[in-house]
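Problem: given the chain below (557 residues), write out its structure.
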Amino acid sequence: MTSPRLPRRGLLAAGPVVLGLGALAACTDGGSSSGSSDSGGSTGGALTIFTSSEELSFDPATSQNLAITTLGLLARRLTAWKTSADAPTELIPDLATDTGTPSDDGRTWTFTLQDGLLFEDGTPITAATVKYGLERSFAKELTGGLTYHKVLLEGGEDYEGPFSGKHLDSIEAKDETTLVFHLNRPYGDFGWIASTPAFAPVPEDSGEPESYATKPVASGPYRLESYTAGSSATFARNEKWDASTDQARTGGPDTIEYSLAQDPSVVAQTLIADRSDAQDAFLASFVPTAQLVQAQNDPKVGDRLVTSGPGALEYLALNTQSEALKDVKVRTAIQFAVDKEAYRTAKGGEISGDYATTLITPGIAGREEYSLYGDAPAGDVEKAKSLLAEAGVKDLSLRLVITEEDTAAAESIQQGLARVGITVQIQPLDENAWTSEVPAGDGTGYDLVLSSWQPDVPSPNANLTPLFDSSQIGDGNYNLARYANPEVDKAMLDASSTVDADEAAAKWAAVDKQILQDSPVVPLIYSKNSFLHGSGVKDFVIGEFPAYPNYLTVTLG
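Solution.
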């Protein structure tokens, strides 16, 4: 079972980043489903979503929501995702008539809005409102959102938002329905970027910037009817939403209520029992380990336990700037010494994920399967010892920094490396201390780190750039291996600048191997996520990407 906390995702700093995003089968176990539950729901009813979150924010400028989760119920974007349990996620139009038209070798992207789109108050959704919504995301008052567009749009590095009356010229609203984006370099996958939260329209008279988080103006099938932090949020129908213009959302339930600050273990027990007050509900959090075992063994649960296919990459980062790990032979020895079988067992067994050998994760278009370091999940002890001998290394002691909930997994790494004479000291930290020491630190506080990565969009680049581009070292970024290879930086920039999808995919596959030859990380597993829902919930689908249910298409029986 994967940790109930969400995998760390693409938190790229809005700074001098060489950013790129390239062109982006579930397994059954016990009583779990393989990515989707029974379908055939109808329109109507009241859906409840239980979440451990105590607060929700509905401002697209500060959101990191995936395109298929909470904010997508309220706020449309230029593009959207179509997910399927047995096919890669597809980029589809949302507010726009298509997924974007590139010109100038990919430096310019044009989108045309559909006619007749309205906000919940009946005012038109125009190109100007999309431009304003995107400009808001640059404001210093609104932080924490995804930043891909900020480092791609011309002039974005110096822009500070629209609240002082200034606008960003590289976002051009040519008329009521035409948007033109001018980028600072060729970029092959801007259509995926246009599906991120900041591309939602916001009326220019939306009030003070901070107030929008709890008073959003809806463009999706639901509007925010009420919200009380620590208690609940209720979505009601947006009568101005036109289903005929929306390929991504079905608008099934009449109302959706978020029940906040819930204990996942308690909720899971309620769902397993299928109590009457939880039949039209699902748990947004991963099923805790104890309840996962219980649900698997309870025949009454059946396909109400839904397990994703392999999703986020869980990995061991090797600090390439550590004196002990500078030699690639030592890092390669660790590739062979790690016991992935023991790691997966510590995470909950087969249902927790598939063994990983590549950096680009399953469900991403263009991914190529390969294994540079053998196919034995338990490792190759003799090969590891031989490489350490070649490197002249013995009595090696390394510090493994983890978050507190990863202790069992860390011990499996410790035991695996002990087989080849490497001593591992485990240092558990709380989440804040871990963040200060590892992504925000100077790299001197650790040799090894356990982490995971869930891309923000279904793109090879979203797997690779945040973790391995040299510009992503330190300052809160997620190149935890502190890996710097100018040739890899150049190859990633080239791949992300390629407009042809097939050509870009081939380049990203080559970059994947190029990086792993340097052994900056050990891929461990592609984690699977398990979710529970009540018997009244239908069309509960987890696609090949991401490993989360698509909230936008859930209905009630």
